[in-house]
Specification:
This protein is of the alpha+beta class. A hairpin with a 6-residue loop joins strand 5 and strand 6. Helix 3 packs across helix 4.
């Protein structure tokens, strides 16, 4: 498996894509946010994120399918945490935390992601603070929902 094999492409986000990826934003806000993102393609089998590595970005899945997995207590053995499809957020990025990734993400098929890097996030907050807050609120909402589902899964095992 190849780690971080990507191709960054400069392509515009269409109105339909913005509406699908950013349903929490107005049309104008979606267009503004799109200007802070960069697009990357990942080949099937590529490792998008690796557990324990520094958090370098979070992303919106534009196309393809990703597997999120976590290594178990048995070296080399993983459990499948989630399958992410277009429209999903991927990455557990916390600005300035210095934390490592909490899971590994692999592309199950050719996939495209709209990436938000720390520098672009910093620019977003400096230039469009209200939009930055909306994006951060969405991240918190998604992570909170996922944490709740993880609690439910854990409770079902006990």
């Amino acid at each position: 498996m190849t780690v971080f094999t990507t191709e960054t492409v400069a392509i515009p986000l269409t109105l339909a894509e913005r509406q699908a990826l950013f349903p929490f934003l107005s049309e104008e806000e979606g267009e503004l946010l799109a200007g802070y993102l960069e697009y990357r393609d990942y080949a099937a089998g590529a490792m998008v994120m690796k557990d324990g590595t520094p958090q370098a970005f979070f992303a919106f899945v534009a196309r393809g399918k990703l597997a999120v997995k976590k290594e178990t207590a048995f070296p080399g053995k993983h459990i499948l945490v989630a399958i992410l499809e277009p429209g999903a957020l991927v990455g557990d990025y916390v600005p300035g935390s210095g934390q490592g990734r909490t899971g590994t993400v692999d592309a199950l098929e050719p996939s495209g992601l709209w990436i938000m890097t720390p520098k672009r996030m910093e620019n977003l907050f400096a230039e469009q603070p209200l939009l930055g807050r909306k994006l951060l609120a969405r991240l918190v909402q998604v992570l909170s929902l996922r944490l709740g589902k993880a609690y439910d899964r854990l409770a079902g095992l006990l």
